[in-house]
Design brief:
Layout lengths: L12 E7 L10 H17 L4 E6 L3 E7 L5 H19 L12 E4 L3 H12 L10
Antiparallel strand pairs: 1-3, 1-4, 2-3
Helix pairs in contact: 1-2
């Protein structure tokens, strides 16, 4: 059965979830986190894509972004492929880093958006984000 295409249009607000393969860590230290955040800054600045919130957990990531003219698939491909290559080189490993495709939930209701923003800013597990 083929995968369903994602709903994406300029101005759409997305809750994006990225998980490590087999729920393994995708960040081993602050250098990895900094690399990921630098890539977000570079790619999102380059495409004028607003990122309203993010949470980096050891084995997954939550992002709240609004797409612009750059499709979500293009943004995520640049971010995840570049990061996986850098992570694999740095840690001398091969193979996939991320489990399946990223998950994208379209935020259409204010109540969901408010709860999601709170969830992300608390660190996605109910505690404050620490770096």
């Amino acid at each position: 059965m083929p995968r369903q295409s994602r709903i994406d249009a300029p101005g759409a607000l997305h809750h994006v979830i990225i998980r490590g393969i087999e729920r393994k860590p995708i960040f081993k230290d602050n250098t990895d986190r900094d690399e990921f955040l630098n890539r977000i800054d570079l790619i999102f600045s380059d495409t004028s894509t607003p990122c309203y919130g993010w949470s980096l957990m050891s084995n997954h990531v939550h992002l709240l972004i609004r797409t612009t003219d750059a499709p979500l698939a293009t943004l995520m491909r640049r971010l995840l492929t570049g990061y996986a290559i850098a992570f694999n080189r740095r840690h001398r490993r091969h193979g996939q880093l991320f489990q399946n495709r990223y998950k994208s939930i379209l935020c259409q209701e204010d109540a969901y958006l408010l709860e999601l923003t709170r969830y992300i800013h608390l660190g996605a597990d109910g505690t404050s984000i620490s770096k």
